Amino acid sequence: MIWGALVGGFVGTLVLTTILRGASELGLTRMDLPFLLGTAVTADRVRAKAAGYALHFLFGFVFALVYYAVFAVIDRSGFLLGSLLGLLHGLFAGTALVNVLLPVVHPRMGTGFDAAGSAPLLEPPGFMLINYGRQTPLATIVAHFAYGAIVGGFIGLAG
Amino acid sequence: MRIERIDGYAPIRDYAAVGDGRTVALVGRDGSIDWLCLPDLDSPSAFGALLDAERGGRFQLQPEAPFEATRRYLPGTNVLETTFTTSGGSVRVIDALTLPTGGLSPYRELVRRVDGLSGRVPIRWSVEPRFGYGSMQTAIALHGGVPVAARGSDALAVLSWQAGDAEVAATSVCGHFRTDAGSSGLLVLAAAHEEPLVFPARAEVEARLEATMESWRSWAGGREYDGPWRDAVVRSALALKLLVFAPSGAVAAAATTSLPEEIGGTRNWDYRFSWPRDAAFTLQALLALGCSREARAFFFWLLHASQLTHPRLQVLYRLNGRADAEESELALGGYRNSAPVRVGNGAAAQLQLDVYGEVLSAAALYARFAHGLDRDHGRRLAEIADLVCELWPRPDAGIWEVRSEAAHFTQSKMMCAVALDRAVELAEAGHLPDAHVDRWRRKSALVREFVESRGYSESKSSYTRADDDEALDASLLLAVIAGYDRADAPRLVGTVDAVRRELGRGPLVHRYVGDDGLPGEDGAFVACSFWLVEALARQRRVEEATALMDKLVGLGNDVGLYAEEVDPPSGAFLGNFPQGLSHLALINAAAAIATASR
Fold first, then answer.
1. In Å, how far is A130's CA from the nearest CA of chain B?
2. CA A56 to CA A9: how far, in whole Å?
3. Mean pLDDT over residues B563-569, rounded?
4. Are the C-beta atoms of B441 and B428 separated by less than 8 Å?
5. Fewer beta carbons under 10 A from the terminal one: N or C of chain A?
6. How far apart are CA B429 and CA B445, in angstroms?
7. Is the complex ipTM higher than 0.90?
8. Which residues is B149 bridged to in the sheet?
9. Percent of chain B with pLDDT over 70
10. Which residues of A touch B102 (CB under 8 A)?
11. Could you report the per-residue pLDDT of A55-87, keeping only the tens digit for each?
12. CB contact under 8 A, A31 and B196
């Protein structure tokens, strides 16, 4: 079952990234998760993208294991439950994770407390990441919904 | 100099260009940035007042009191300095698109620094972005306290330091402030595309601006040209560098679309593409200036882009190498009501035979520079030569991309002969497979027979525009430049004289006179005027060439830039701006005189 979580985490992250990237290409959002994550560790754009993708997949595995733990506790799994968790995950990402927690730990992300400083700042995401485009909440939730369904589905299959 | 606009439009001559190798902004003498496409040169405009003064969007920055303006590029750079003088004092504005340095910088960054020189000068500024060529409603909101205009995958942040409080309205951000001697205000537009915005700190912007100036100075200082008109040549090199699309190495024909060849007319085209036709001129100029990196990148881009249509060469390609260039019309009023405003270019689908001669000439130049050609490139060039053997008897649209019926243009045929001659030379030097050399020779002789029998007028002592036609065409000057025959061959000497006599207007030269399938007339073509200089120089008529060159160098605008055309009576610029071909022709003309004078 844990292998199902890991494979699901990998495939789910792949799909989540693709959906967000596609939404970006379609002009629906400026959300770029690898860029956001990578610039937390380096200011170099190229390295930031590379590091961001690595971190993104790492978090994809971590969240899949959290899903796995939830399924183990309730002793049920499957893509429907996964979708539900994905929905919650997406809402959490938009309201707290990227909006509140990431700016706290991200050395280059702007917050309401920042004043004129010497370092460049990334545009803060805003509630439900709306600063990155009006369709960003929708794209984020759809992407996480798909991630959850895939992780739930793989864990169900492995179980 | 006082500033005058007609119906909100500045004369094309009044613009200067700043850029970063990815996009270009046009800055009016009155401090208004009326053209900026984001994120790239061929992307939709965010500021497009150049093509619609009401709806296009702009970034204005000027004294509130009546003023006069003088300007220059900071020596050896593409950084613009405009000095506004009012009755109460003077102020200097530095405009630049900064080059990225290490560290986290915005995706694109436009910097306007306002330095007080004397007295007190009230300044007002206003940023009115209109994404998507003015077609998209732009929403402005505060993100983290910074005014941000966003639409779809594009966003612009307006940052200001010592430039007054930013007043955010529904579709604009503006401010007022006063300068004193020694004061320094800073306005920055940070742009993002498909990513969150980066809000730079002032110290970083200042450092990046300094680094940008140094980078340009270093590049300009590395140019090897030491002949006459060095200032004009280096300025042309810098203008050309603005048109080199750094991500791919392609050279855009111009930074704009649809600046008209006739005010109020319909001859309005999108030049934000790269034309393989300009390949030989481009390589010749880049190599003359010692720009070996750019020459290599351009040649590789050329062969990479044309791979999709191989062995056929498309008339133009997008800057990223793609072949699609579908033409459409925008709902913009056009520069001084010169509609339609077009994006994309329908000429892409035309047959233009001269392209083949230019590309094989470019290959010959590159092979000489690089001491050889890549084996795969050699094979492909041989296949292109084979195609010329098939295509040359066909009528085509010619170098000027006429939209009238296809014809047997003499210059097109001449360039077919040049293509085959260069292929033979390259094969003999071992750079191309030599299996078809005899065929190339035979076909070249056939083409020449056609040109000499049907494309020459005994009565005019000149080659003619098309077969069995007595009209002339300035493109025939390229026969001298491309080496169709010895430069001093009697028929070429006669042609140069005839073109000057019939198409010359003072120092300027028209492309042709007569029907081209479009209503109206255009101005004199700047590149043709410099081609005449180069042709004269190659014919060792150095005094004539020098006298003409002196006059033409004086026709650039106050910062040394040229558009595509000049209206001979008024000297007004017409057509897209700044025009790469005009600057290429200037560089090559100066270099030809330098060579001929040695």
1. 10
2. 11
3. 93
4. no
5. N
6. 20
7. no
8. B140, B156
9. 98
10. 43-44
11. 999 999 999 999 999 999 999 999 999 999 999
12. yes
| B569 Cα to chain A: minimum distance (Å) | 47
Q: What is the pLDDT of residues B95-127, one digit of tens each?
A: 999 998 878 899 999 999 999 999 999 999 999
Query: Which fold would CATH assign to domain B12-205?
Result: Beta-galactosidase; Chain A, domain 5 (2.70.98)
Name which residue leads in pLDDT, B26 or B247: B26
For B88-241, list the strands marked E by DSSP.
89-97, 108-119, 121-128, 139-143, 146-151, 154-161, 167-168, 173-179, 184-193, 198-199
State phi, psi for B537 to the nearest 5 degrees. -65, -40
Instruction: Identify residue B77 by its one-letter amino acid code.
Output: T
**Alpha-carbon span B99 to B91, nearest angstrom:** 25
Residue from B580, B73, B132, B562 nearest B316 by CA: B580
Tell me how far CA of residue A29 lies from CA of A20, A25, A111, B158, B194, in angstroms: 8, 8, 20, 20, 7
Cβ-defined contact of A48 to B104 (cutoff 8 Å): yes
Spatial separation of the C-alpha atoms in residues A72 and A69, rounded to whole Å: 5
Instruction: Give the C-alpha separation, B548 to B383, whole Å.
Output: 41
Which residue, chain included where needed, has tokens 């060159």? B549
Task: Print burial letters for B128-156: b (CB count within 10 Å at least 16), e (below 16).
Answer: bbbbbbbebebebeebbebbbbbbbbbbb
Q: From the CB of residue B395, how many other CB atoms can be counted at a distance below 10 Å?
A: 15
Which residues does chain B have within 8 Å of residue A123's beta carbon, measured at their own beta carbons?
143-144, 146, 148, 155, 157, 192, 196-199
Task: Give me the residue spans of the domains in chain B.
Answer: 12-205, 226-597
Rounded CA separation B567/B587 (Å) = 22
- Cβ atoms of B148 and A130 within 8 Å: the answer is no
Q: Give, in degrees to the nearest 5, the angle at Cα B373 between B371 and B379.
A: 155
| Nearest alpha-carbon partner for B26 in B582, B579, B588 | B579
For residue B279, give both structure tokens.
């390949």
Distance separating alpha carbons of residues B305 and B302, to the nearest angstrom: 5
Question: Are the C-beta atoms of residues B162 and B113 closer than 8 Å to each other?
Answer: no
- Write out chain B residues lying below 8 Å of A110, CB-based: 144, 146, 199
* Cross-chain Cβ contact A44/B102 below 8 Å: yes
Q: pLDDT of A82-122, one tens digit each?
A: 999 999 999 999 888 888 888 888 888 876 665 545 566 88
Question: In angstroms, what separates the C-alpha of B178 from chain A's closest C-alpha?
Answer: 21
Cα–Cα distance, B422 to B266 (Å, whole number):
38
Nearest-CB residue to A122 (from B148, B155, B196):
B196
Q: How far is B62 from chain A (nearest CA, A)?
A: 26
Neighbours of A10 (CB within 10 A): 17
| Contact: B102, A131; criterion CB under 8 Å | no
Q: Check if A114 contacts B (Cβ < 8 Å).
A: yes
Task: Tell the burial category of B304 from Cβ atoms under 10 Å away from its Cβ (0-12, 13-18, 19+).
Answer: middle
CB contact under 8 A, A116 and B202: yes
Report the C-alpha gap between B189 and B155 in whole angstroms: 10
Q: What is the pTM of this model?
A: 0.92
pLDDT on residue A118:
57
Asked if B136 and B46 touch (Cβ cutoff 8 Å), the reply is no
Chain A CB contacts of B200 under 8 Å are 120
- B426 CB contacts (<8 Å, ≥6 apart)? B360, B363, B364, B367, B373, B378, B381, B432
* CA-based nearest distance A117→chain B, Å: 6
**Cβ contact B196–A110 (<8 Å):** no
In this structure, what DSSP letter does residue B514 have? S
Q: Which residues in chain A are contacts of B103 at CB distance < 8 A?
A: 43-44, 120
